[in-house]
Amino acid sequence: MLTLKSGYNETSLREPAPPNHVTAEAEEAPREPHRPAGQHDFVVAASRLPVDLVHGPDGDEWRPSPGGLVSALEPVMRDAEGAWVGWTGAAGAAPDPFELDGIELVAVGLSAAEVRDFYEGFSNATLWPLYHDAIAPPEFRREWWDTYIRVNQRFALAVAEQAALGATVWVNDYQLQLVPKMLRDLRSDLNIGVFIHIPFPGYEIFAQLPWRRPVVNGLLGADLIGFQRHGDAANFLRACRQAAGMVTSGSIVRVPAGNQASVHERAAAAADDPYARRRRPPDVSRNVQTVTLPISIDSAGYAKLVKQDDVRARAREIRQALGQPDVVLLGIDRLDYTKGILHRLKAYGELLREGRFRSLQTVLVLVASPSRERVEQYRLLRDEVEVTVARINGDHGELGSPPIHYLHQTYPSEEMAALYLAADVMLVTSLRDGMNLVAKEYVACRDDETGALVLSEFTGAADELNGAFLVNPYDIEGMKDAIVRAATVAPAEARRRMRSMRRRVREFDVNRWAASFLDALRQASRLR
Ligand code: F6P
After folding, report:
1. What are the angstrom distances between the C-alpha of 251 and each of 225, 291, 524?
2. How many C-beta neighbours within 10 Å does residue 394 have?
3. What distance in angstroms lies between residue 180's CA and the mean position of ligand 1's atoms?
4. Atom of ligand 1 lying closest to residue 123 CA
5. CB 117 within 8 A of CB 144
6. pLDDT digit string (tens) for 191-212?
């Protein structure tokens, strides 16, 4: 559990104030360079802080925040002594900056309307479905876009406040795609990298976005833009050419001088806005580098965790609580329509109905962590998942032994590790997934080289984990066959598969990913 060194102080709640050096004097100041006020040589910006502020019955508390991005970046940041700029996960003014496990956390406040329009709206009902191949229909609303601009500006200002002269800034993910350009316009001294953790869609889909050009230009404010898969980088380069009329050469985008803000951006940046007052776009042409770098996990951390006696004992306890079945199948996801949970349930339900698991006693543990619960599509999905689970349990269960154990909860990493140890087969059946770190976590935890991974070919992880049983989750028959093969694989073959996946996850861990990204950023900044 994360511990706060100097914690959140209720009395320090305040409206997000404009940076203290945004004064009339600053407006009059010579154009370049701006006087950087920050202390930090390294600043990370992500939509969320690594902890969420939760308003509970016993008062406010900080809890680890959800998602792969936070779990990947947290160990990197712990060693870097940088600042992390992000949202607290709750509506309201930002608490004062505070320190957590050696990381300076700088909160960006969002009002309730901004949570609705920026987070639930533009980020998670427009961009998220669009970038995941429009599995759910994306909604395009102009007022959401205006709020996206405003919130991105606030993030850019907060980062500009923290960053020392010539600092390295690492912006993360689709919620902050305008930040690199906004930051470049505020502080041309910074080295700016951005990593997109989710897929970047093919141009035919991306082109639907009414604001495709400012989004591309926003990202092009960076020196380096990182993607999970080659296909994502190729899709982005095509978007640069087609949506923004840029010239690309290999992995480089040539951004001409005077690539100014779009009409939309200018309109939204009202004259009295602190961002608009400070903006000084550099008038030089630049090279922007793109790179493919699949994210990973803290493999050594998981290896250590599964050596703990309490974690191993808990894994045994879990199997016992499940009735010592022959085969434990496990799914762990945020409850999200991209994860293919319904497809997985369909396959499992049919396997039970057809009696293909009759000779084996199987149990499926389905952990679906609560996520984006006020977004319509997520509410609908939860209902559908829960009805489907209840049906399968009703049709195939016996008193005290349901075939599915469904948990709509979030667990700490010790419990996750125990679940991974307890599971014979891990089911990752995403319809589309930037990477899927759960697949890598499972592999990292299987230190006796047993266990099998059923993995969707539509995940970034599928490019790396070649010992997995790869499936197309839309092909229910194919997925059923793969699940049965994984559940009945001979021990020697299982070991061979697991060993090669473990080697990959050990060698390419999150530290190597972060170091490679920062190396590439140093080079890209030099060649800018
Ligand atoms: O990995 C994609 C991502 O959206 C991250 O940016 C985010 O931290 C995680 O999933 C969880 O999503 P949310 O912040 O909406 O709960």
Report:
1. 10, 7, 11
2. 9
3. 19
4. 15
5. yes
6. 999 999 999 999 999 999 999 9
